Amino acid sequence: MEGRASARPFRFAVPRKILHLDLDAFFCAVEELRDPSLRGQPFAVGGHPEERGVVASCSYAARRFGVRSAMPMARAIKLCPGLLVTPSRHKVYSEVSEQVMARLHALTPLVEQISIDEAFLDVTDLPEPGEALARRLQSAMRGELGLPCSLGVAANKLVAKVATEVGKATNRTGTYPNAITVVPPGEEAAFLAPLPVEMLWGVGPKTAVRLAALEIHTIGDVAGWPEDDLARRFGKMGQEFSLRAKGIDDRPVVTMRVAKSVSQETTFVRDVSDGEALRRTLRELSEGVGRQLRREPLTGATVRLKLRWANFTTLTRQTKLSQPTDRDDVIYAAAVQLFERVWRAGKPVRLLGVGVADLRPPLRAGQLSLWDDGSEKQRRLQAAVDALRERFGERVVRRGRLEDP
């Protein structure tokens, strides 16, 4: 055993490309597809005022009168006497949302849907600039589905979402904003600095009042305030405020789909042509996939390799196992065999990925397969290693040498 390492070998930090997509007045946009006469009209989707209904969504024409989502419909009609009210059709909205998310997943599997009309995408691995990808998505939403949307592009989720909000607020024309706002890597703090403190995630009305009492009115004011004093006044959230105000957010995009496969991949900042380094990366990826399978718990009967050359050509290979597994060594053995079939010594690699598919629950304790190889001791050892890594970190236990399959 040895202490935790500060960084993994051959894993280089690269700025992420995160997109935040928000469908503009989604329910209203869907209703306009059904009834084009609503376009440009002040209308709201929701319950009728006599039934104590509330506004689920409202057109941008209605917003000019002060109508807002979650407002009682009776109040909305007082603000806008000519307001048209359209009942909600949640089944239809859900079906359209599924079509939207399917297009996002066609671009990247790293999609985190956070509501019916909003999602994050991690497109770091795609060669196109983030802005170009955002424009492609916006064009697809409008051209294929007839839906307007706004996007934020940044190196993390926090700034990407704020970028979307800023874009929408800037493009208040009475129609759909269709905004795209890009925050280049390294400019997060400068972008956030002039914004009102209420736009910082976690700052609600009560917290904003407490911050105002300290003459903290902008996100830049928060960034410039001593972190230890914020922690003293607001506890753990004070530390979070300080980090967020500086544009720091390391949270990954978390996929929410039911798993059909489990995979991990890494993109090298500099192409790697060293065979030992590539095999070591395959080992680490296989161990990560194995740990994820055991946490679920799941096993898989198909191992997949993903490899991208320096010219961005991508290939995938897979092999069927004799029986489902969740063991690191079995996954690695299959992955490295696939690797050896396609890689030639010295050829540079940009990306490596390992995955396991054909998932199913593991055999119950004591239920041995007809093909069991007597490796129960190996499984107990793997469980012990997992427990150590959960408690002390991934690299507390390391293999003494790279083993051949």
Mean pLDDT: 86
For this structure, what is the CATH homologous superfamily of the largest domain?
DNA polymerase, Y-family, little finger domain
In the CATH hierarchy, the architecture of the largest domain is 2-Layer Sandwich
Q: Please list the strands of the largest sheet in the order they lie side by side.
A: 5-6-1-7-8
Structural domain count: 4
Which residues sit in consecutive blocks of at least 5 with pLDDT less than 50? 1-12, 364-374, 401-405
Can you tell me the overall shape? globular
CATH topology of the largest domain: Dna Ligase, domain 1
Strand portion, in percent? Answer: 15-25%
What Rg do the Cα atoms give?
Answer: 26 Å
Which sequence of SSEs, written as H and E, runs from N to C?
EHEEHHEHEEHEHEHHHHHEHEEHEH
- The residue fraction in helices comes out at 25-40%
